[in-house]
């Protein structure tokens, strides 16, 4: 398993933090708040597939932005 770099983690975190919606990453039976940089740091690896769950007033825009941010980091993610 290969972790991702600090820049990619910060980019994902900053993208998520720009939205009001609740953004949760499901990974290996755990639920991680994507707005938590520590949670992302200890969770994200390149060869994993993640599921995003987004709820809130700007969830559609958040989904588009986060799918792009995860793809830019070379991570596979799908929406719940």
Could you explain how this protein is built, in words?
- This is HPr domain-containing protein.
- InterPro entries: HPr-like, HPr-like_sf.
- The protein is of the alpha+beta class and 80 residues long.
- It has a single domain, classed as 2-Layer Sandwich (Histidine-containing Protein, Chain: A), CATH 3.30.1340.10.
- It is 41% helix and 26% strand.
- Strands 2-1-3-4 form a 4-stranded mixed β-sheet, covered by helices on one side.
- A hairpin with a 2-residue loop joins strand 1 and strand 2.
Helix content: 40-55%
CATH class: Alpha Beta
- From the alpha-carbon coordinates, what is the Rg to the nearest angstrom? 11 Å
How can the largest sheet be summarized?
4 strands, mixed
How many domain modules?
1
Q: Name the strands of the widest sheet in spatial order.
A: 2-1-3-4
Q: Write down the secondary-structure element order.
A: HEEHEHE
The CATH homologous superfamily is named HPr-like
- Low-pLDDT runs: none
Percent of sequence in beta strands:
25-35%
- The CATH topology is what? Histidine-containing Protein, Chain: A
Organism: Paenibacillus pasadenensis
Domain HPr: 12-71
Pfam families: PTS-HPr (PF00381)
InterPro entries: HPr-like, HPr-like_sf
